[in-house]
Design a protein that fits this description.
Blueprint (H helix, E strand, L loop, with lengths): L2 H8 L1 E6 L1 E2 L3 E2 L2 H8 L6 E11 L9 E3 H7 L5 E11 L7 E6 L3 E6 L2 H10 L4 E2 L4
Length: 131
């Protein structure tokens, strides 16, 4: 297996329900908080297609995890959008969080510890075949 194939093979893609028990919506802020301390030193670039209620969002810049948590502290519902994350100082994105129609969260990661954490926290998570 070549180095490139090994990298592709190491990427895991999972999907799970955004709406949890008792009509609880798992928002971006709660999802990021559940992944701490794994993503503590991360920065995020947000691509928001639809957010309820709409809030002013910086475009095409990298924000620290704390900045994203502040932006989403009022618990807006991310209907469609994506947060791509990387370690501060790295140029490689290794965690992607995607909201689909506010009903599902998709996670794409090259980090086994993040994939394991998602599976532990959200037992309904299943493997995605494609992104």
């Amino acid at each position: 297996m070549s180095g490139e194939e090994a990298v592709v093979a190491a990427i895991r893609m999972l999907t799970f329900r955004a709406w949890r028990e008792h009509h609880h919506y798992l928002g971006l802020e709660e999802l990021l908080t559940s992944l701490e301390p794994l993503i503590e030193t991360y920065e995020w670039r947000l691509t928001i297609d639809w957010l309820i209620p709409a809030i002013e969002m910086p475009e095409n810049i990298w924000l620290s995890t704390d900045q994203v948590l502040q932006l989403f502290g009022s618990h807006p519902q991310l209907v469609d959008g994506e947060a791509e994350g990387r370690r501060v100082g790295s140029s490689a994105t290794d965690v992607r969080l995607r909201a689909l129609d506010s009903s599902l969260w998709d996670v794409q990661t090259a980090r086994p510890d993040v994939a394991v954490r998602i599976s532990e926290l959200y037992p309904d998570a299943v493997e995605l075949k494609e992104w």
